[in-house]
Amino acid sequence: MNLTKRLQTLAHKSGLKELPEQVRSRVERGLEQRIKLAITGLSRSGKTVFISTLAHHLLHADQGTSLPFFTPSAEGRILSVRDLSTEAETPFPLQSTLAGLQATPPHWPVSTEQLSEVRLAVKYRRPPGLGRALGEHSTLYIDLIDYPGEWLLDLPLLNLSFEQWCQQQQTLFADAPRVQVAEEFLELQRSIDWITPSSDEEQARLSRLFRDLLQQLREPPHSLSLMQPGRLLMPGDLDGSPLLYLFPMLVPLPENAEQAAPDSLYARLKDAFERYKDEVIRPFYENHFRHFDRQIVLVDCLKTLNQGEACFNDMQQALNGLLHSFQYGRNSLLRRLFRPRINRVLFAATKADHVTANQHHNLDRFLELMIQDARREMRFDGVSTSCMALASVRSTEAVQAKLDGQVLSCLRGYRKESDEEVALFPGEIPTELPRPEDWNDARFRFIDFAPRALPRTGLKPEHHIRLDQALEYLTGDLLK
């Protein structure tokens, strides 16, 4: 941005506006900007819906009707937006996900299984000022990068040895609900001779058993987040690959490890762990995260409250571990790997439409508390951060009900699991992190709603919550 301003000043002083149109056009193209946005979030946090609806609203931003807090759209300076996703190496399935949200009845899209990308070209008119010395119009290219949330949780493994990872997993599997769900797998591991020769078949079989265990822990009623290795759950193009013959030792490491046979299960797993880091995790982040400019981190806070203390603690641990890995200071893991250039991060609590409007501030506050330590370190490293609650698609409408002479703010919508229409008071978001004694079966009962149909045209502000404010924070300063 500083270079652009210097060029604008130079152009003004040198009378660029008097140059032939052909020359000015070349200069304008040279100053066109591209921004790569990393859409980050744990599994099922709403990344696919966010990307789809963000792109949909942007593609209609020239109409200036649905994004009142996105300054260039509200000022009528968006001239046209073009979808260039077909130029991407792995295009995001934008049309199919939008078709689902626009269907009768509408439905949520399936989770992401591969890395994919939406690429948009936003042609806009510069506001009055020195910038117009370079031409009245310019173009901002926006790349929205989507990838499975399961892959994110592998990043901290780059900083661990196999033994350290096993010790972390042993601590996790010593507590509920993991210890109960994994009882048979733990008993099986206790019967293994880890240092005698083993086979590929045994390694693959045990890896599949561990994958099934992770899948069980990820689903309700547990809904845990800290699942490693993430590619076991969402393998992508590695489905069936020996690179995924990997699982942790959940029993004490062998005391005589130095005597382990080269083809023992212990030696095999150590080698598999290092190969997984070098051939799966590291290339993914080196090939993609080094190019990101800004980042949005989506968090489903309501799920953690619904599922109870174990789910909440697990998500907080997963999220903070992930964000600590994302630190951008000189001594950070990412800096040592490939010098990322991310300078702005937005933390967004999804499903703001699942609570009443007077709870949005509480949802903001709750998310701030969940990630306060990692966010503090980001700010220290010079990264701008912000927190907000949003809803990519508004699934409910506000209604009022009377109870004992008092008027209550309620929501009306359709239950996700049954399509039954309900009107209810969804509950309150705590303004402090729950203490152990705060958890009980009746306190948090936020329901999941089915989406309301997203119009193909005629978009309005009531079709989302704060999507325009997210756009303004992430890109508004570039459209000047």
UniProtKB/TrEMBL annotation:
The record's listing under InterPro entries reads: P-loop_NTPase (IPR027417), YcjX-like (IPR007413)
| SUPFAM superfamilies according to UniProt | P-loop containing nucleoside triphosphate hydrolases
* Full protein name: YcjX family protein
Source organism = Marinobacterium stanieri
